[in-house]
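Worked example 2:
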Amino acid sequence: MRRVVAPLVAALAAALALAGAANAIPDQGTPQFNDYLQGLERNGFHLNPDTAWRVAHQACIGGIPGYIGIELAAQGVVGPGAQDRVFEVARKYACPVQ
């Protein structure tokens, strides 16, 4: 019984600890997300909304599975430091103020 309860309690604690990070970036379709997309546009990054959301997640929260670099390159974010620049714009417009 103890072997079952301890991991369950640990999983619950981890879920509660990470629950705040899940709402850290704006959802697609909200005015905040539209402001973020406009900020990307003003800085010369023309990303589709799905990629923009993944970039914001990567910049604000951290690693997500997938090939974000390849996806950005497919949408024209190429060159030395280009990914760093798009992540800086994402941090400026999409990440919450801490």
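Residues 77 and 83 are 7 Å apart (CA to CA). The longest helix spans residues 2-22.
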